[in-house]
Amino acid sequence: MSANSQLDSNKSYTFNIAFAGVIEIIAYLVSMLTSLNVSRILVIKRMLMAAAFFHLLYYFVIPHNKYTGFPKAVVIVLDICIRMVMSFGNTFLAIYSIELFPTSIRHFALGMLGFITKLMYMVSFILDTFFT
């Protein structure tokens, strides 16, 4: 559901995908820097707490596409925060797993993680329309 509410529903599918990509690139860069400079267990604990916090806040502002003005801006900020935390978490855990598992296992797992994540994001627009 968060894929459709990132911006105004009048924005195009391509714009939403591009916007999500920019957010994810920023999260990836921050994740790499954090992985090098901060204790990993501490980061994983904080990441899980932040993800739970933003997802709960996001849950309580239903319906996402009915707001205008400042409330719409709050929904967009929550959506951006969720995407940042999830992208950061995926990359951080990927970096962590790269150090733990043999090459063949991690290449398959990380490739599938990336593929399924992007596929589900792109299909979410179609599934949301279908189920609505």
Structure description:
There is one protein chain. The protein has helices at 13-37, 40-59, 70-100, 103-131. The protein is mainly α. It has one domain (13-131). It is globular, with a radius of gyration of 16 Å.
Could you write a compact summary of the structure shown?
The chain is mainly alpha-helical. The chain is 80% helix and 0% strand.
Fraction of helical residues: over 70%
Largest sheet: none
Unreliable stretches (pLDDT < 50, length at least 5) are none
N/C terminus separation: 11 Å
Q: What is the CA-based Rg, rounded?
A: 16 Å
Beta-strand percentage?
under 5%
Mean pLDDT: 79
SS element count, helices: 4
Count of domain modules: 1
Number of strands: 0
Backbone structural class: mainly alpha
What form results from the Cα inertia axes?
globular
Tell me which oligomeric state these chains represent: single chain
The ordered string of helix (H) and strand (E) elements is HHHH
